[in-house]
């Protein structure tokens, strides 16, 4: 099976320092990939490079066997959607926040309305359509953020710690909902988190990133139950915190 995304010899640098060095990495179509590592490991940098928001210093990214490393174009970026930890919502209503991407792509007004209302309902926030974004709770704002990403029907959804600022009950319900939605749409998803509970629940594949390097990649259950020498200290430290 040809991977949807393949990374070869990817390097990202800043001020002559390597932030990321990935010899090889691949993502299958429909896969949910979790990326975990300590603070400063390069997780957000990896997401930005994969989603074409940051141009790597060197290396190649293939999308369906097509080299897209130099294709930082609007057309290519529109295959991807990114939801960050902070929703960064616009100073307007929930409806308009979710609609903005479709409007920028010149969708007909009636289609915009249909799609926005559909995704507001999927994320259980249809009743908030006319509410101003400034008056939302943290959980509501993150639901708007995710609906704004999914309304674009991306081929790949990138999630950069979207649940980390939420209280536990809010996080659990949103995790259930996003897992159901990703499963229904079969959206390929790359999910960055520092929370083992989130990753065990959502990710089928887990990649451990430390100091800008991938230390282990495999099925989530395999990586957590049998970490290799490079990843074991980090994973075992996390497990001890959960006990």
From TrEMBL:
GO molecular function, one term: ATP hydrolysis activity
The keyword Transport is annotated on this UniProt entry: yes
SUPFAM superfamilies documented for this protein: P-loop containing nucleoside triphosphate hydrolases
Secreted among keywords: no
One Pfam family of this chain: ABC_tran
Domain of life: Bacteria
Chain ranges of the ABC transporter domain: 5-236
Keywords: ATP-binding, Nucleotide-binding, Transport
InterPro entries in the cross-refs: AAA+_ATPase, ABC_SmlMolc_Importer, ABC_transporter-like_ATP-bd, ABC_transporter-like_CS, P-loop_NTPase
UniProt xrefs under PANTHER family: SPERMIDINE/PUTRESCINE IMPORT ATP-BINDING PROTEIN POTA, SPERMIDINE_PUTRESCINE IMPORT ATP-BINDING PROTEIN POTA
Protein name: ABC transporter
Source organism: Mesobacillus subterraneus
């Amino acid at each position: 099976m040809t991977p949807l995304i393949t990374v070869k010899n990817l390097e990202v640098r800043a001020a002559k320092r390597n932030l990321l060095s990935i010899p090889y990495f691949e993502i299958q179509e429909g896969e949910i990939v979790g990326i975990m590592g300590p603070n400063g490991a390069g997780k957000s940098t990896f997401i930005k490079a994969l989603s074409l928001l940051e141009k790597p210093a060197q290396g190649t990214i293939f999308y369906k066997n097509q080299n897209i490393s130099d294709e930082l174009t609007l057309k290519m970026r529109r295959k991807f959607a990114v939801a960050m930890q902070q929703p960064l919502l616009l100073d307007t209503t929930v409806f308009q926040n979710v609609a903005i991407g479709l409007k920028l792509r010149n969708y007909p007004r009636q289609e915009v309305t249909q799609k926005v209302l559909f995704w507001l309902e999927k994320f259980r926030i249809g009743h908030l359509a006319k509410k101003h974004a400034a008056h939302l709770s943290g959980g509501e704002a993150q639901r708007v953020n995710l609906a704004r990403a999914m309304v674009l029907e991306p081929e790949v959804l990138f999630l950069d710690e979207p649940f980390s600022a939420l209280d536990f009950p809010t996080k659990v319900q949103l995790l259930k909902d996003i897992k159901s939605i990703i499963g229904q749409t079969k959206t390929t998803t790359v999910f960055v988190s520092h929370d083992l509970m989130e990753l065990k629940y959502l990710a089928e594949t887990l990649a451990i990133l430390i100091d800008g390097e991938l230390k282990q990649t495999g099925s989530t259950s395999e990586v957590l139950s049998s970490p290799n020498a490079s990843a074991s200290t980090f994973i075992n430290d996390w497990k001890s915190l959960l006990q």
